[in-house]
Q: What sequence folds into this?
């Protein structure tokens, strides 16, 4: 039974004006595409005279419902599946040779250019070769799982990440202890990264929240966090009463400021050499942040309860 190919889905990704071939009118080019049909134009010789025109075909390339497909990529190459190849697709030959498709060499589509061609000699494998004029007829698109395995093999051999837009191997960024990085939708403070495993001090994950001192294996590419992403992590830490100490490279507890109530018993002084005096708290001045007690302002103010032994001394608060 004939397998019908949805040509419209393939042509949607092709530029207007791309050259095609019609068994009915010869050379033609693509004019427009919608969900159910596409239009071609042609200008060829008929009975010795040049004749032009346009025609609409259904999604399977037929002029009429009971007809056959009359449009193909070219006169020489009539395989629509192969015409659908995109830059970055992994192809495999009948001889089990792999290559990554870049582009067709010309509008006959019978040969193509590719990169990362698997070449072997004397048990030495080379994944960095670039090949031109490869025969379209002997290659097929590899299955998704096979393609992913091949790409992973390339990345391991060439020690980098394959950019499927440029087909170049990009060396991974080097991250230091304490760098704040992003992988997927997570923000983390890096302890070390090896291969695709991140060891971190703290990580903010949208599903699990904050994760402390753990390791995670990720297939995602790591990058440096933006200032906004860093702040999201810092805000999440602050809600837990924690902060990141970049110098000590550790998560520390935030020392909470005392929240005094009016008329609360307090100890006050104006310098570290002063003795602590007892007073009643009033408020904090907005312009300079000094503590106001009974008609007097002070630089230092601590709760009286729990610090009774400091009254009348110059000792510092412990802890």
A:
């Amino acid at each position: 039974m004939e397998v019908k190919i949805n040509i419209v889905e393939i042509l949607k990704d092709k530029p207007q004006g791309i050259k095609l071939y019609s068994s009915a009118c010869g050379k033609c080019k693509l004019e427009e595409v919608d969900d159910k049909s596409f239009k071609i134009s042609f200008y060829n010789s008929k009975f010795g005279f040049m004749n032009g025109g346009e025609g609409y075909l259904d999604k399977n390339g037929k002029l009429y419902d009971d007809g056959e497909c009359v449009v193909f990529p070219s006169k020489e190459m009539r395989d629509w599946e192969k015409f659908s190849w995109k830059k970055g697709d992994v192809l495999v030959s009948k001889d089990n040779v792999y290559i990554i498709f870049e582009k067709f060499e010309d509008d006959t589509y019978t040969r193509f250019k590719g990169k990362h061609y698997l070449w072997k000699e004397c048990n030495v494998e080379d994944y960095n070769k670039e090949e031109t004029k490869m025969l379209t007829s002997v290659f097929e698109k590899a299955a998704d799982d096979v393609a992913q395995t091949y790409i992973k093999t390339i990345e391991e051999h060439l020690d980098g990440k394959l950019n499927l837009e440029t087909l170049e191997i990009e060396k991974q960024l080097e991250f230091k202890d304490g760098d704040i990085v992003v992988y997927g939708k997570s923000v983390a403070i890096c302890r070390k990264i090896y291969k695709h495993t991140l060891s971190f001090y703290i990580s903010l994950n949208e599903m699990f929240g904050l994760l402390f001192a753990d390791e995670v294996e990720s297939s995602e590419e790591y990058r440096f966090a933006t200032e906004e992403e860093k702040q999201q992590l810092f805000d999440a830490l602050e809600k837990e009463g924690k902060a990141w100490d970049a110098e000590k490279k550790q998560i520390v507890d935030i020392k909470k400021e005392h929240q005094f109530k009016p008329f609360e018993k307090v100890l006050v002084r104006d310098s570290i050499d002063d003795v602590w005096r007892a007073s009643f708290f009033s408020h904090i001045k907005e312009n300079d942040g000094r503590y106001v007690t009974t008609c007097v302002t002070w630089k230092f103010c601590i709760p009286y309860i729990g610090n009774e032994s400091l009254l009348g001394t110059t000792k510092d608060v412990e802890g």
Notes: The longest helix spans residues 144-158. The chain has a mean pLDDT of 86. The first strand starts at residue 19 and ends at 22.
